[in-house]
Write a structure and sequence with these properties.
The protein is α/β, with parallel strands linked by helices. The protein folds into two domains: about 5-320, no CATH class; about 460-755, no CATH class. Helix 1 (about 5-40) packs antiparallel against helix 7, helix 2 packs parallel to helix 9 and helix 26 crosses helix 30 (about 740-755). It starts with 5 loop residues before the first helix and ends with a helix.
Length: about 750
């Protein structure tokens, strides 16, 4: 069989999918190390003094305590990181195994459709990826790949073709480790290295700034660039770990996709009794894979990828057309001219042709890149650079050796599904011809579209965040937020009731809910396109709500903003033209990405809330919501104990734990975004429910804790927003500990809903 080049294109995209998955874990790992480095830099160097004689170091007791705390916190975060990464990777591997089996079935159906040959599908056990990640093969009686015969495979699946948990358990990394153990090993090793680096560095005379730089290298807190660039920029604690994470992910993805392919081949052994070993031919193909490339093997009698770490090779089925035609005479065999070819990264090339030379031959004219060059190399710039190199060297093969195939491109699972489809999506040639022969009806003129109206809150996100959500969860920001609020409602009780009221406020106020990824910088043109051009109706609706409340509360708390200024700035925003300097300045001020020490913001001059999301942020499931409720309750109780200690003045009692500064501080970085969003929406509730009025005597009479967090002591606006966050996330705890705040928030929210 001459293998369709879609097999090779899909393999390249699977490699790019591995890039996307690896980047998630690299960035979340780096955030922990970067945070530790940031904390080291924040320690006052005056507290680390050096004695001239002997170079001994004296460290203040408080500083020693802080250093120990940094090491402990980082170690705890790393433990959380490896556990969460392993859990997340289960979902990724389960999805890609399903995709790969569907893809192979799809392609087998396409090449045999003329003969009407039935093709068996393979069901993926729900526990398959779980077993791949966690199960040590030494602990179970493994059903190995050597047993992938059609009969035994069918018997093992109890009459159905299945890829089971036991088969998943047979997969380990080339060094014999499971993915879970490998991630845990990175975390434990990093914690030990951090401890040693700090201890040895301090006592050898390094400043904390020097230690920090040694740990992170040239990596900055924005983590700009693709995963390869991030790894290269790292220091002692990031560079090696980042490479290891990438290797684990890529190798595991390759293992799972190849096992899924083998399962489909076994289920259809009578159709394709052999398979071909296919190496991705580029500058980094290993000698092992070069040797195996193009060879065919009987099932159970040949090697399968990966043959080593970072192996990118694959296998393709070899269909027995001659044998099948005896039973299915109508089966059409592919043209014989296709047999004189061999596989490459972009398809099949003539035998004896060097990959680089063939790719160079695909250019247009002298230097202009072709579509296949651009798709293969990743960009117009890279393709043009390749053509210039090849022309200068007189050889495409020489040029390709200078261009690393792993270009850092990423692909999401959603992208792969969309591009390669499912077996149920297959349209046969017969069906296609029938559709083509059917006369097309005369199209009726489309009516003029009605002006778009906005009935509820609209969520928008920066390009980087939309890409992150698509790559990580296969979803949009709107669905990400909606699903997260569904997760809160799933808790039930007052959490459900108050979340429903929160959503009602968002919808009735026509709240424009904006999000950006941490590290995003202001690009006014792109911001304008996203907020004003693409979401004009939502932008206008939010301004209309703002305008509605200008005259309602201008005499309230601190006069808010002057009535005149509010009207001027709202009118300015309605200009919607970047050529208007006043609009540009106002627009940038109220819609720029959140960043720095500010994870979110809002203003009475807009009905817009801006929230910053970290890489590694999680969707709020019911389980996550329950965790947030528990952590919020712990925060309330600890802060009450802290307040009571200082209020009572009994300093003989043990000093309580510190006061939490903000809500969400203890929920984990992956869940913190929801607390920020709710806090900022709380400001909007306060504005629209009372003009941001103060607490008031009638609420004080109810008693209980007056301040929920340290930040809530800043002013009445922050007190309301912090209390509102607790009102949604742990209403029972807030009502019990701070009834005055609970009632204040609830009455203000009810009034806002009434006025809207």
């Amino acid at each position: 069989m001459s293998t369709p080049e879609v097999f090779f294109r899909e393999t390249i995209d699977i490699n790019r999918y591995g890039n996307a998955v690896a980047e998630k874990y690299v960035r979340t790992y780096n955030e922990i190390i970067l945070n530790a480095a940031k904390k080291l830099r924040s320690i006052d160097e005056r507290q680390v003094a050096e004695i001239a004689r002997g170079g001994a170091r004296i460290i203040a007791p408080q500083t020693r305590k802080r250093l120990r705390a940094i090491i402990k916190q980082s170690s705890d975060s790393l433990n959380t990181w490896w556990a969460r990464s392993a859990l997340d990777m289960k979902k990724e591997l389960q999805g890609v195994a399903q995709l790969q089996s569907e893809f192979i079935v799809n392609e087998l159906k396409k090449v045999t459709e003329t003969g009407g040959i039935p093709i068996n599908s393979v069901a993926i056990s729900e526990k398959y990826a779980d077993s791949v990640i966690m199960t040590d093969p030494s602990e179970v009686n493994i059903f190995t790949s050597k047993q992938f015969t059609e009969d035994s495979f069918k018997e093992f699946g109890r009459g159905k073709f299945r890829l089971t948990a036991t088969q998943g358990a047979s997969i380990t990394l080339p060094n014999g480790q499971t993915v879970q153990k490998a991630f845990r090993g990175i975390a434990e090793s990093s914690a030990e290295k951090l401890d040693l680096a700090v201890r040895s560095g301090v006592f050898s005379g390094e400043t904390l700034q020097q230690i920090s730089r040694r740990l992170i290298g040239r990596l900055d807190f924005s983590q700009k660039g693709n995963v390869k660039q991030i790894a290269l920029a790292g220091g002692e604690l990031t560079k090696l770990a980042n490479h290891q994470i990438q290797t684990i992910v890529r190798t595991s993805v390759n293992q799972v996709t190849n096992q899924a392919s083998q399962a489909v081949y076994a289920a259809n052994k009578k159709v394709a009794p052999k398979y071909e070993y296919v190496a991705t031919l580029d500058s980094r193909t290993s000698p092992i894979c070069q040797r195996l490339d193009g060879q065919t093997f009987d099932y159970n009698n040949g090697p399968t990828p990966p043959q080593h770490f970072n192996c990118r090779s694959t296998t393709v089925p070899v269909v027995d057309f001659d044998g099948l035609q005896k039973k299915y005479p109508s089966l059409e065999k592919p043209p014989t001219t296709q047999f004189d070819t061999r596989p490459s990264a972009t398809g099949r090339v003539p035998q004896g042709t060097a990959y680089g030379d063939w790719l160079y031959s695909q250019r247009i004219g002298k230097f202009k890149p072709s579509e296949i060059q651009i798709e293969t190399l990743g960009s117009v710039e890279k393709a043009a650079f390749f053509n210039r190199l090849a022309a200068k060297a007189g050889s495409g093969q020489t040029a390709i050796r200078q261009i690393v195939r792993n270009d850092g491109q990423k692909r999401s699972l959603a992208y792969l599904r969309d591009k390669y489809g499912k077996p149920s999506d297959i349209i046969t040639d017969t069906a296609r011809k029938a559709v083509a022969a059917t006369p097309k009806p005369t199209p009726t003129p489309k009516p003029e579209p009605k002006p778009k109206t906005i009935k509820g809150s609209t969520a928008v996100a920066s390009e980087t965040l939309e890409k992150y959500l698509q790559d990580s969860y296969g979803t949009t920001v709107q669905k990400f937020v909606d699903d997260s609020l569904d997760g809160l409602e799933a808790v039930g009780g007052k959490v459900k009731a108050n979340t429903k009221k929160l959503r009602k406020f968002m919808d009735k106020s026509r709240l424009l809910n904006s999000f950006n990824l941490r590290g995003d910088t202001l690009n006014t043109n792109k911001l304008f396109e996203r907020i004003v051009t693409k979401n004009k109706a939502a932008f206008d609706a939010s301004l209309n709500t703002t305008e509605k409340f200008i005259d309602k509360f201008t005499t309230k708390y601190q006069g808010m903003l002057m009535n005149a200024r509010m009207k001027v700035e709202t009118k300015t925003l309605k200009a919607k033209s970047l050529a208007n300097k006043n609009f540009r300045d106002t627009f940038e001020a109220y819609f720029r990405p959140a960043g720095g020490g500010n994870d979110g913001y809002t203003s009475i001059l807009t009905t817009n809330v801006q929230t910053q999301v970290r890489t590694g942020s999680s969707k709020i499931t019911k389980a996550n919501a329950l965790k947030i409720k528990q952590k919020t309750n712990e925060l309330l109780k600890q802060n009450k104990a802290y307040a009571d200690y200082w209020k009572n003045g009994d300093y003989s009692a043990p000093t309580p734990k510190r006061e939490f500064f903000v809500t969400g501080e203890n929920v984990g970085e992956d869940l913190e975004w929801i607390t920020t969003m709710i806090h900022e929406i709380g400001h909007q509730v306060h504005f629209k429910g009372s003009g941001a009025d103060v607490l008031g005597n009638k609420y004080r009479k109810l008693g209980g804790m007056k301040y929920v967090t340290g930040y809530s002591r800043k002013n009445p606006r922050e007190l309301f927003a912090e209390s509102f966050t607790c009102y949604v996330l742990d209403p029972d705890g807030l009502q019990d500990i701070a009834p005055r705040l609970y009632t204040w928030v609830e009455e203000t929210l009810d009034n806002a809903l009434k006025l809207l």
